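Most newcomers find our protein records easier to grasp once they have seen one. A record pairs a protein's sequence with a compact description of its fold. An example says more than a description, so a record of this kind follows:
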Amino acid sequence: MSSVGAVSRLVVFGDACGSGTLGMAAKKRMRNALYGAFDEAFAAVDIDPGGLHQEDRGDGILTALDPGTPSSLMVGGWLETLYQYLREHNEGSAQRLRLRIGMNAGPVLDDGRGLVGRAVDLACRLCDSPTAKRVMADAPGSDLLLVVSDWLYVNVVAEGGRQVEPEHYVRSRVRFKETDETAWLHIPRLSASALSGLAGTSGGPGQGPHPDDDGGAARQQTGGGPTPGDGPPPPSAGRSISVQGDFQHFENNVIHGFTGFDKRRGPASGPGEPA
């Protein structure tokens, strides 16, 4: 499909947690609350419904904003209003509305049937990823999780602003279907350190690679080799890996396309000695 006519827009995908367990009457109440939450949040930041494209997704809503809408509103006042709405709605309720929200920005095309584009795909994948679902399952007391793309965090969230909390976001790797992306997770009122424990990451903004990075995974698979800056391993390290055969390329500590692999324990070979 041609991208002619595509316009860069902020894309928001919201999905209700656990909706598959609800009966018909409960689903109706959930959907009413979902739309009520979105409507109130947009009204709080003076976003005209006429400037929105919204698609119903059953237990979720896909929205693309007018290109002129400042993205900072969405990670600030819009998110705060959504959080407060959920708090009030869920207080004393036996059936709480808990939401995962994915946000991304990029070229989006409206083909007359709906929205298409990689920006849409990524927003939906961030929201529906196993990482996001696991975090919400492990945080039953939390009603709202926001997952933003790396581009959106770097260019919008990290700049801060009114009701924007970049220090409460945690970086995580999202691998889901064709998606392999860095993302940033945020639960309002939850510290970065607490969220790191839920997400299985090493910390908040500005910190080093987390365990889900390609380099960390490769080091685990090869027995825990040194990281940059660690210096040479001590003589007692006692593990060597030799590659026999051809390999295509080496990237992020991962060998791609090898034809032979021999993993041995014992003293590493010295210069000029056979492996």
